[in-house]
Amino acid sequence: MNANPEIAQAGAAAEAAPRRTASVIFAGSVGNVVEWFDWSVYTTFAIYFGKQFFPAENDTASLLATFAVFAVGFFMRPLGGWVIGGFSDRFGRRAALTLTIMMMAGSSLLISVLPTYATIGVLAPVLMTVLRMVQGLSVGGEYGAATTFLAESAPAKRRGLYGSFLFFSIAAGLLLASGLAVVMTNVMSKEALVAWGWRIPFFIGGCGSLAGFWMRRNVGETHAFEQLRRSGRIERRSLWWTWTQHRTAVLRLVGISVLGAFSFYLFISFMPIYAIRHAGATPADAFLASTLSIAIFMVAQPFFGALSDRFGRRPQLMVFAVAYLVFLYPVVRSIGPSMTSMLLVECFGLLTYGLYSAIAPAIMAELFSTAVRGIGIGAAYNLVVALLGGTTPYLMTWLQSQQREGWFLAYVCAGAAVSLFAYWRMPETVGKPLE
């Protein structure tokens, strides 16, 4: 007996849907894994290659010069968000994703074979700075491109879940970089790491980016952008035009992002150092607690994304802001040297932050129309991160040296109040189709 063709087609579509979901999520997030792996190994291995590119009278001076180049790359992120965001609005999300991952692949591979100061003199730090600037452009562009791709590829009722894999993949990249550092420092001598071992993670990251490019090249364009292209409404939009025509959306994104920018760098970048210097924790325990909390944060992302699809974006965001406003100061100040104390403090910070990070891509995409989504998200978000998140470790370190670290926590609480106001005023957009 012949099967009903309509039933057969429905069955084929049902089987294809999970495969398409997996491929879309993988294509949108795989680049983040390798991008953040490449971005992180610079700081992780800076202690080994710093003096080879930035020779100075002492190790501290070399390390400071190395981190100055990190800062230069960091402040390239807004430019990357602007330029590559505009590129994605004109040529497509897929084109932007392939561009960012190739930029990261090329720069990482070149760093892995870059001659040192002893070989080519002052050209060595100049080239390292230029390559790090390219990485900053890539990371800045990747966030906006991946956010728009995941959000535009998602069904309206599952946008929170799809978008949650952005920070899932960022956390995965951070964990891979940290894990590689643990392995290499245990199997290689310090002399070998200084001489040539530091090149290995950059080479691995570059090859990983090339693999990510190969995986992304066959992914389809988003339906929202294809509709825009077919309608003939694609135009070059300047940053100024975006600001004047979408001022409310830009200001809302800034308000929404303030607390998130503080939280990420406070709990992922600085908290282990704070535990060591303030609470007397051992470095091994502090970094183990940090690694465990990041792993827990990563696993929680899809759950929080799906939760917002069911109950809405605003309730999660307001819980996040209220928790920081009320509990951040006493919780952070209570940190002790024990593993349990550090892990509890880190989990408080990262799991409450996870309520925001899991749904940030969906919220940001819902603020803008398809025509300006790339530049709107990329430029505004990366500017907030550069100004607030990028200065968090420095400000916290300086205030701690003055025994006034409580001032910074009060500063973050003020940021929580700003974001709480933005969350309270924003409309609920869960389940609504993108414009």
UniProtKB/TrEMBL annotation:
User: What are the subcellular locations of this protein?
Assistant: Cell membrane
Recall the taxonomic lineage recorded for the source organism. Bacteria, Pseudomonadati, Pseudomonadota, Betaproteobacteria, Burkholderiales
Q: What InterPro entries does the record tag this protein with?
A: H+-coupled_symporters, MFS, MFS_dom, MFS_trans_sf, Sugar_transporter_CS
Instruction: Give the chief site where it resides.
Output: membrane
Family of this protein: Belongs to the major facilitator superfamily. Metabolite:H+ Symporter (MHS) family (TC 2.A.1.6) family.
Source organism of the structure: Paraburkholderia hiiakae
How does the protein's chain sit in the membrane according to the entry?
A: Multi-pass membrane protein
Q: Does the keyword Transferase apply?
A: no
Keyword set includes Cytoplasm: no
The protein's matches in Pfam families, at most eight in alphabetical order, are given as: MFS_1
Q: Which UniProt keywords apply?
A: Cell membrane, Membrane, Symport, Transmembrane, Transmembrane helix, Transport
**Boundaries of every Major facilitator superfamily (MFS) profile domain copy:** 24-430
Transmembrane stretches in the record are 63-84, 161-184, 196-215, 249-274, 286-305, 317-336, 342-363, 375-395, 407-424
**Official protein name in the record:** Alpha-ketoglutarate permease
